[in-house]
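Example 3.
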Amino acid sequence: MAAAGTETPRVLVTRKMMPDVERRIAATFRVTLNPDDRPMTRDEILRLAAAHDGLLLTSFDKLGPEFIPSLPPSIRIIATHSVGYDHLSIPQAEAKGIAVTNTPGVLTDATADIALLLMLGAARGASWGDRMVREDRWGETTLVSPMGLDVSGQRLGILGMGRIGQAVARRARAFGMAIHYHARRPVAAEDARGAAYHARFADMLPNIDFLSVNCASTPETRGMVNAEALALLPKGAIVVNTARGDIVEDDALIAALASGHLAAAGLDVFKGEPRIDPRYRGLDNVFLLPHIGSATPRTRSAMGHKCIDNLEQFFRGERPADLITRA
Ligand code: DGY
């Protein structure tokens, strides 16, 4: 595609994408793909960026705090293949006049499905049950052990009632769960659908059996699920996280799981992933996944196409639909 009066823009794609996405981006821009999917270092991305006008990168790229200030002047837009953009500094991008776009909406259902999987898996012992079968320990099961906890009919507290939080609530209602939520402000009544709003996070916690973390990672939410918050949950509560690892304090969560204050946790995201706190591996009451909230072909393809839509709009001189930076 040629931007108004210029040559076809050059786009660097840092990770392997779904085949239909790669075909479309290769047909639209002058593109550098990563067919071997070798994770690139920050310095490699910066070096390659000099020959490109735009970047299509992911939240899996390890960019570091000085990434945007170090970008060459050729880069005018970053399309991140993720709804979360905590791996990019928006103020730094704005200061450099670089547009940033994300992929909201298309991964809502897939991520909410994983939140339910985590709730069910953590509560009903999916990982220890799976291990028992693989290790041929079925004979250890009795009528009273091992046992999980009920999900149906329990109280769910959602931290962050955006698209994904609301989609988690919709699914949880099918399990007869009572829905509570905390967010900066209440959502519209048609979106809350009867969920109880708690203006203070601390006020929600004693009233729930499950806590699902569904907010963005921001300076305000980082470390929000800390020892003080976990202590307010009833004994035997379960915590699941499909948002970002740094919203939860690992020391506090691990201590609460080890002491039995929390019955279990289900985690798809971790601070510092993929190098997770090794103590999680030694806990039997955790159900762990490798950040696969959006990992279905349909969702990953839709995310890729959204990135291309945004890049096309930008290079045509239009405002991209998912622009995060101030225009
Ligand atoms: C997102 O889109 O933010 C997912 O967590 C994948 O990074």
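The longest helix spans residues 297-315. Residues 59, 82-84, 107, 293-294 surround (2R)-2,3-dihydroxypropanoic acid (CB under 6 Å).
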